[in-house]
């Protein structure tokens, strides 16, 4: 079925075959309020079941800002709980945080790989978003900050859980999270937060991300989605648990027609063409 989503704070385009470009698009600085992250979750969950999307690129529609983080001036749904007693208010806040976390985590649980093209100002929630993506590229003009401590709170939407595992350097992660100081693209690369720094600005890193997405989109969708799924599992389990789970997963996935298609194409020195995951061009689409 065709999507009924009509994004207000995001822009969706198909710049490459099998690639969806998802751009944050709330003027002037992509500051997030409740409606924006709720919409993001709805979009990503629809992407995840679209058989024609093989890879996703997350970026910004604005040249100078990826996102400045939370919109501190926005009217939050939490304001309606001001008359409640502390226990009831806490329960409302707890559910609000869980919903917000789920919205950002939808990027990690999305079946397709998500590449984020970071540039310009990347503060606060930008780190949460990027940490939930599979591949992080940034332009040389990027400026980062785990800014939550600067406004009197601990980051609560995923950065403190994902960043230390991504960079593999607990001291560096704590230094940046506890100080809230800004750091540049080179530091982001040095600590392993991003895999590549692209010289230039928004258009340059976006082009690099789209080319990578285009390459990934040519691969077997069974192999690509299985790889993401198994790497997510391996991150959160022991090596032995990961090996056993992979064996159980691949006892069915190895029977995919994609394997024979890939082998025949390689031998014939041709480009492999893989069928959609649902076996047709029909399905939930954006």
Topology (SSEs and partners):
Blueprint: E1 10-16, E2 19-24, H1 34-48, E3 55-60, E4 65-67, H2 86-109, E5 114-118, E6 121-123, H3 125-131, E7 135-139, E8 143-145, H4 159-167, H5 170-179, E9 182-184, H6 185-190, E10 196-198, H7 202-217, H8 221-235, H9 239-253, H10 257-268
Helix pairs in contact: 1-2, 3-4, 4-5, 8-9
Highlighted features:
10 strands, ClpP/crotonase-like domain-containing protein, 2-enoyl-CoA Hydratase, Chain A, domain 1, delta(3,5)-delta(2,4)-dienoyl-CoA isomerase activity, single chain, 4-stranded mixed β-sheet, ClpP/crotonase-like_dom_sf, Enoyl-CoA_hydra/iso
Plain-language structure description:
- This protein is an alpha/beta fold and 286 residues long.
- It has two domains: 10-217, Alpha-Beta Complex (2-enoyl-CoA Hydratase, Chain A, domain 1), CATH 3.90.226; 221-268, Lyase 2-enoyl-coa Hydratase, Chain  A, domain 2.
- The N and C termini lie close together (9 Å).
- 45% of the residues lie in helices and 15% in strands.
């Amino acid at each position: 079925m065709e999507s009924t989503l009509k994004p207000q704070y995001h822009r969706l385009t198909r710049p490459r075959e099998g690639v969806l470009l998802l751009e944050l698009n709330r003027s002037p600085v992509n500051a997030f309020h409740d409606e924006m992250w709720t919409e993001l979750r709805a979009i990503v969950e629809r992407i995840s079941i679209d058989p024609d999307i093989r890879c996703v690129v997350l970026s910004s529609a604005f040249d100078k800002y990826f996102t400045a983080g939370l919109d501190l001036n926005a009217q939050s749904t939490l304001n309606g709980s001001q008359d409640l007693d502390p226990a009831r208010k806490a329960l409302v806040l707890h559910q609000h945080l869980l919903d917000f976390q789920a919205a950002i985590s939808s990027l990690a649980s999305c079946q397709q790989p998500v590449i984020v093209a970071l540039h310009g100002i990347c503060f606060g929630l930008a780190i949460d978003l990027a940490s939930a993506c599979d591949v992080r590229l940034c332009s040389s003009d990027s400026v980062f900050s785990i800014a939550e401590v600067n406004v009197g709170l601990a980051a609560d939407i995923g950065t403190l859980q994902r960043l230390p595992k991504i960079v593999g350097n607990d001291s560096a992660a704590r230094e940046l999270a506890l100080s809230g100081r800004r750091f540049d693209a080179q530091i982001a690369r040095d600590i392993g937060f991003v895999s590549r720094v692209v010289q230039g600005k928004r258009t340059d890193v976006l082009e690099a991300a789209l080319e990578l997405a285009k390459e990934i989109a040519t691969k077997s969708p069974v192999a690509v989605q299985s790889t993401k799924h198994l790497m997510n599992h391996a991150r959160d389990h022991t090596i032995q648990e990961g090996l056993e789970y992979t064996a159980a997963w691949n006892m069915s996935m190895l029977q995919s027609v994609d394997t024979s298609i890939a082998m025949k194409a390689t031998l014939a020195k041709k480009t492999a063409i893989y069928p959609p995951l649902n076996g047709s061009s029909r399905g939930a689409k954006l």
